[in-house]
Amino acid sequence: MSVWKLRLSMIATLAVIIGLSTLVFTVILSLIGSFSLLTLGVLVAGFNVLQWLFAPYIIDALYRVKEVPEHENPKLHEIVRNLSKRSGLKTPRLMLAHIPIPNAFAYGSPIAGTRVAVTSGLLKTLDYDEIEAVLGHELGHLKHRDVQIMMFVSLLPALFYYLGYSLMLSSMFEQREESSLAPLLGIGFMVFSWILNIFTLYLSRLREYYADRHSASVVDEGAQKLSVALAKLVHATRGMGKARKRIQHLSAFKALFIVDPDRAESDSITLSRMRTTDQKLVQEILSRKLTTMDKILEIFSTHPNIVKRLRALQELS
Predict the structure, then answer these.
(1) What are the Cα distances from residue 140, in Å, to 133, 148, 220, 310?
(2) Pairing of strands 93-97, 113-119
(3) What is the per-residue pLDDT across 219-275, written as a single tens digit (0 to 9) for each?
(4) Distance of CA 18 to the CA centre of its chain
(5) Backbone torsions φ then ψ of 259, nearest 5 degrees
């Protein structure tokens, strides 16, 4: 997928999300009036904005994240500084998450500033060339303001879900004739929130491709290095079932990761029979055919299928 097609796809997806939301808001206003909708909208929007502002502190606590002093890992600091300069970004704070699952993520807010984190598992799994490619991807998320954009689009499904839920709940306690319509409206709004969420997940996958492209553009041989890194990360996550279960309750933040830990088991089945050299591993993944189940599972994922993702990187290299 070319960069222009990728950008057009993202713009079109955003337009669909906003357009459908505006249409349904208009219908809601005509059916139930503006006051209750406005109250609920303010509450949901306010909660999401506060979550965005303070999320870095929540993430630090949940993932046991600490800032990495430069004297502890000067080479990693140098990589982040160099890539930030190439990306035209202010150097973010370098963080270490003390969890065994190999991964990395970028996050931040106007209050906390920007941060890029690697896990202890990632440092044990990849060499520095591959870590550089992973960090290039994460800086791509900061460059493209993905945290802010995904926060905005995720707000809309949440708003419709809670609107539907409140209508269903209120109908249980009100005896007015018009309340008989409320449960149906509530179910309709909850279904619509699910539809919007499908578009939101699609946008998230597009932005992963976009961040991969950024890594390829700022890292020497970045596409090849990132391909090897992704294959090794998915393979290394295999067998870490207990570790993944411990962070399942943090699914609201899994879109931050460079690979989706929830998909690691299914993706690693592909890789389990292919463990030879790193380069051969990538080539064997690229030759694999996607099944119908692979395509269905991808619809409900924040990240692209590993095979499609590596094929896109192969085109760049």
Answers:
(1) 11, 13, 15, 17
(2) parallel
(3) 999 999 999 999 988 888 766 655 555 555 445 556 678 887 666 555 555 444 444
(4) 19
(5) -130, 145
pLDDT digits (tens, 9 = 90+) for 180-216: 677 787 888 889 889 989 999 999 999 999 999 999 9
CA atoms within 13 A on the CB side of 237: 29
Domains of the chain by residue range: 3-316
Q: Is 138 a catalytic residue?
A: yes
Catalytic entry in 130, 132, 138, 298: 138
C-alpha of 317 from chain center:
24
Using an 8 Å Cβ cutoff, are 200 and 255 in contact?
no
